[in-house]
Amino acid sequence: MASQLTTIFGPNPNISFFPERRVRAISQRLGHNRLDQLLDEIRAVVATKVKNSCAIPQSYIQRHLSTGKIQVPSRDIINGHISGTCALTDLFYSLAGNNNPLAAYFDSVHPIYPFLCPDTFRARVASQDLVQSLGTDKVWAALFYAIVAIGCQNNEGGSFDTGVGEAWSYFERSLSCFQDLLFGRGSLAAVQALLAMAIFSSTVSAFNFEPLMLTEAAVMAQGLGYHRSNSAQEGPCRRTFWVLYYMEKTSCFATGKTSVLDDANISCAIPDMMESTFHDYDWFFSFVKYARLVSKIHQSLFTISSVSQPLSNYNSVVESLRIELEAWRATIPTRFRPGEKFKTRCLHEPLAVQVALSTHFLYLNALLTLSWTVLHYGAVRLGSAQQELMKRDLMRTARSVLELTVHIEVAPSTPVWILAVLPLSALMILFDLVVHNANHPETGLSLALLDIAGGHFSRLEYASNGALPGSLIAEFAHLARQYVSETRKPKSMSRDSNERSISFQAQDRVGTSPSAPEPTTSVAPADPTGLVAPAVLPQGPEPVASDAPGVMQPWSPASLDRSEALFLPYIDDPTYYFGDLQLLGIDLKDLFDHSYQLPGVSDSGV
């Protein structure tokens, strides 16, 4: 049921369902309950997509696997898909075709995720026994169909709807082999098939499959020892492992899931990937470094043991991680570097715009998470100047995300975290800031950015032919603009709206029982990690990264008006507290550090 849906991706995603009490507070400020209705509609859309995509594998099995065998397309159909990709002759094959999915895969996807050895894959596709091998080798079939599905998705064959389109027809075939991948002996081809299925699942039509595919691929890769592969003959294993590493780590960081890959036990050398180098930018190596950084962020800040540590230690760790994030940013060439102006005219190579946008979003996602961490856990004991600086950093980061939405390709092949998740997270943050700072000098610019974000989601609705009702998201901008307009009216003109707000609050108090537990199923701009604040906070201000020497700030402080402070309710309102939140659990790390003694037995014995 939609009312039981608590998250979009996992237990602690960047977009989470916020306590009803918080939504009620915003609704009382707005003076109506349209926000509740809007959130209910969004929940219903997400729940429907999750339900539909989960039903696909079983429906395919019922339609096509009644005989227990995979129905392989005819040779003519397969030739139609690989035409121009490989010639079934003794002549050298090439990727010259413009209308075939394998050419689209190697042109548009392989440089970003270079886990395949192109020559090896092409040679097997070019073999005369391709049809026979697809019918008898289910691991190879899973890999082949997943690659074809991705190619179709990037070659006008994709769809925003689950189970619709040519790409999905091949992804279904790959999914039908999933059990054979899991219960087989494990192999490089099986890990690669799971990776390919994860890449397809990173899009909006199949997003709920991605964590499963990456987790199973990580378990299998470690079982096969790929995390320690260092011999000269293990090049394909190394390239596959490191693509898996950065995909799994960034996915876990976005969803809040625990990574399966243990960094302390990895000794596999990072290979050189010339196909992932864009002149002066080694995308592959930079992505691996980012994955290691977000793995440290998750391990250092968002585990039970880390949340339980004193706030002085916690803020010191946050500061160190912010410095590392800025150091990573500084190593990126200027034309790709996050925080610099996004100039498409400087990005000439194929896929350069896509890689630059991904790099910007990776950085901004990590920065948003660290900013939320400081504001939720440490800001209550920071000095007022430091608090204000952190709030301005949060606003600037959210604004930067929304500014970049004009460069997003609204297509079925675009990863969902770029297409919707991060823009939605930034929109919710900015919406909250606007509602609580209606008279701030910067609110007009924030409203304009909310309109830009609304335009992006409206483009998404148009491109998907209404399958994704992006106009629902665009309504946040309408609600914010309407509220600011009413707030800035003279008192005599807004008397009626104030009376409506009082009436709404009175009805809400009458309809809410003080003893009844409050539901927690509404969406709002929540903590990006979904974690909770420590129960005990030490006295005295703590340093934050933005004041640390050597940290390079990507934005000019002059971009925001410094004459007025920003208001955030969970920092500036003494009546607001995280009463709905509970600690993650007990910390067992020191469970056996003390001697255990049976009750009633003294040290001296009986």
Strand content: under 5%
Number of strands: 4
What structural class is derived from the secondary structure elements? mainly alpha
Uncertain runs are 1-17, 64-70, 83-97, 501-561, 578-589
Name the shape in a single word: globular
Strand order of the largest sheet: 1-4
The ordered H/E elements are: EHHHHHHHHHHHHEEHHHHHHHHHEH
How would a textbook summarize the main sheet? 2 strands, antiparallel
Count of discrete domains: 2
Number of DSSP helices? 22
Ends apart, CA distance between termini: 60 Å
Report mean pLDDT, rounded to a whole number: 76
Q: What is the share of helical residues?
A: 40-55%
Q: What is the C-alpha radius of gyration, as a whole number of Å?
A: 26 Å
Pfam family, one: Fungal_trans
Keywords: Nucleus, Transcription, Transcription regulation
Biased composition (Polar residues): 500-523
Biased composition (Basic and acidic residues): 487-499
